[in-house]
Amino acid sequence: MKNLSDSQKKSLNVLKNRLNGRLLSYLNSCVHCGLCAESCHYYLSDNNERNIPGKKADQLSSIYRKYYTLAGRLIPRFIGAKDYNEKTIEDLTDLAFGACTMCGRCTIHCSIGVDIPLLVRTARSMLVVMNKVPKGLQSTANAALQSGNNMSIPRDEFIDTLKWLEEDLQMEVNDKSAAIPLDKKGANIIYTLNPREPKFFPLSISAVAKIFYAAKENWTISTNVYDVTNYSYFSGDDDGARELTERHFTEMNKLGAKTLALAECGHGFRALRWEGPRWIGKKYPFKTVSILEIISDYIKEGKIKLDPSKNTKLTTLHDPCNLVRNGGIIEEQRFILKNAVSNFTEMYPNRENNYCCGGGGGQLAMGEYAERRIKAGKIKAEQIRKTGAKVVATPCHNCIDQLMELNKEYDLKVEIKTISEIVADALVI
Question: For burial by CB atoms within 10 Å, which of 70, 80, 145, 282 has the most?
């Protein structure tokens, strides 16, 4: 490591500090069988060998072999070990950020179960300390850390939006007591949301508020900590991800709520429900659930009534990777849709095998890879087209943004909606 810069050494130390049994097994296990190729929407869209998931894993493995194995130091060329030079770093950055959404589809099709997204995120973490995170992604992560939400919405503006939506809700249900409670202590549920909702998609908030009203739920929204997203998870910055998680933990305890309800956001669900306790090093003393789980229970328990004849257009479902494949929320949305629409069809493959739409992994925040992202999304566009559906439901705003772009690019002529919006349209009040 004599010829390496301080930042390169610091980056390699990130890898060194993570070399536990799990990571070591993945770094040394790939047998280059190629089965992962057909699982990746990037590879399928261009047939470029560098986009085969196993090749992406090799980028990190080659660095590991060079600096942390004896053979790598003595006979590097014979085992494919690479120097951690500018060319290697450039290639690693392009593959880790620009050619992978960390969707995990490759892992479930890997013959030996190599967790390639873990290797990719490890590479991203190494690049964080070298300031190699693409500017758009880094600025989005910074916005959340500095302002409390990734869109830097001022608190007063957020409150004004919610008050306006509350008035709209009262008119819609013809009840002046209908409310969007703010910062209420002792509520059963604190509901989080994606900042894109108050900024661009306020009807998503209205839909959930209407559902909570119909169910007579005791709920609230924190005006201080409400952002369900965690772009530090995407960038590979564990310190930032930990800070954002800790804020939710503190706010839940401050307001004394029983349940943290996570909005329709794939990576937000994964980050807060599954990764969060590991980042902050403690268990949550409260329940953490998806809004889909709550709505599903409302239907089963008879707390809300739905009339599927209010949604007659043929509807299909896109499964967000971090919610479904990496999060375990699989049947709830299907149960909801079968009760909320009169004509539902699956796209194929579906559930854990569904293809990534291309909007995950922070791709929407990285403009330099936009053309590549849209091209890789053709796989999803063709899936949708084959269903003949007129409405595509998906419980994730990153997916919605990507699907809206695919809708335009590939002329799909479909409506893109959240699950909550479809349920709100079917409500019988």
Answer: 145
Per-residue pLDDT tens over the stretch 258-306: 999 999 999 999 999 999 999 999 999 999 999 999 999 999 999 999 9
Query: For residue 186, what are the CA distances in angstroms to 219, 222, 254, 272?
Result: 9, 12, 9, 21
> Can you list the domains of the chain with their CATH numbers?
6-132 (1.10.1060), 140-299 (3.40.50), 304-426 (3.40.50)
Measuring CA to CA, which residue among 97, 149, 99, 124 is closest to residue 365? 97
Decide if 340 contacts 300 (C-beta within 8 A): no
CA atoms within 13 A on the CB side of 161: 20
CA–CA gap between residue 267 and residue 401 (Å, rounded): 14
Contact 125, 236 (CB under 8 A): yes
- Mode of pairing for the β-strands spanning 259-262 and 219-220: unpaired
The pLDDT of residue 1 is above 80: no
**Parallel/antiparallel/unpaired status of strands 391-393 and 315-317:** parallel
- Report pLDDT for 72: 76
Nearest to 215 by CA among 2, 13, 427: 427
Q: Is the pLDDT of residue 29 over 90?
A: no
Token readout for 197 is: 């909702």
Residue 32 has a pLDDT of 85
Burial of 65 (0-12, 13-18, 19+ CB in 10 A): buried
- Label residue 428 by pLDDT band (50, 70, 90): very high
- Residue 419: other Cβ atoms inside 10 A: 25
276: left (phi over 0), alpha (psi -120 to 50) or beta: alpha
Question: Encoding tokens for residue 343?
Answer: 């004509």
Share of the chain above pLDDT 90, in %: 88
Q: Let me know: does 268 contact 262? Beta carbons within 8 Å.
A: yes
Q: Which of 64-78, 116-130, 398-412 has the lowest mean pLDDT?
A: 64-78
DSSP 8-state code for residue 221: B
